[in-house]
Amino acid sequence: MKFALRGLVLWLCLVVPALRAADGRKYAVGDAFAAFSTKDQHDKPFAYVGGARRIVVSFEMDTGKAANGFLERQGADFLGRTQTLFISNIHGMPGIARTFAMPKMRRYPHRILLADAEGFLARYPEKENHLTVVTLDDQGVITDLSFVAKKDAPKAFAAK
């Protein structure tokens, strides 16, 4: 019975946010951040069910390069220590570009979560040439949404 109840709770954590995303509504301050699953740059599955304090999203190659450049200098454990997730949008990246981009991503010491499915980033607000930063409280509620220019990429990962 306990196992079935846990399974139902996990299913609700994954399905309800997906249904909310279908209505086209972007995340806003005060929203609960939804659980999700994806893969990282090493093709390893990743399931988020809570615990992060910050999610940084790169929608474009240039902002991703700026963020990865900063993160590479911080060491492999930086994201874990700061309870931060870094998501890079690769949906729509042509096959030839992936041929060059993925091996480079695999060389980074930090984990890069890949947004490769259509609609994966539908709820995240975005601003051209900026990283999106979602700040969460310890209950997983969004307390701040901001945009950081690629030239200021380190600020996206700074504690508030």
Topology:
Layout: H1 2-21, E1 36-40, E2 45-48, E3 54-58, H2 61-74, H3 78-81, E4 84-89, H4 95-107, E5 113-115, E6 130-136, E7 142-149, H5 153-156
Parallel strand pairs: 3-4, 4-5
Antiparallel strand pairs: 1-2, 1-5, 3-6, 6-7
Description of the structure:
A seven-stranded mixed β-sheet has the order 2-1-5-4-3-6-7. The chain contains five helices and seven strands; from the N terminus they run αβββααβαβββα. The chain is globular. The chain starts with a helix and ends with a helix. The chain has one domain (2-156): 3-Layer(aba) Sandwich (Glutaredoxin), CATH 3.40.30. The protein is α/β, with parallel strands linked by helices.
List keywords for this structure.
Glutaredoxin; single chain; 160 residues; 7 strands; 5 helices; 24% strand; globular; alpha/beta
Biggest sheet descriptor: 7 strands, mixed
Q: Using the alpha-carbon principal axes, give the shape.
A: globular
CATH class: Alpha Beta
The string of secondary-structure elements, in order, is HEEEHHEHEEEH
**Fourth-level CATH superfamily:** Glutaredoxin
- Could you tell me the mean pLDDT? 87
Structural class: alpha/beta
CATH topology: Glutaredoxin
Helix content: 25-40%
Which band does the percent of strand residues land in? 15-25%
Q: Could you give the count of β-strands?
A: 7
The end-to-end distance, rounded to whole angstroms, is 42 Å
Taken together, the total number of domains comes to 1
Strand order of the largest sheet: 2-1-5-4-3-6-7
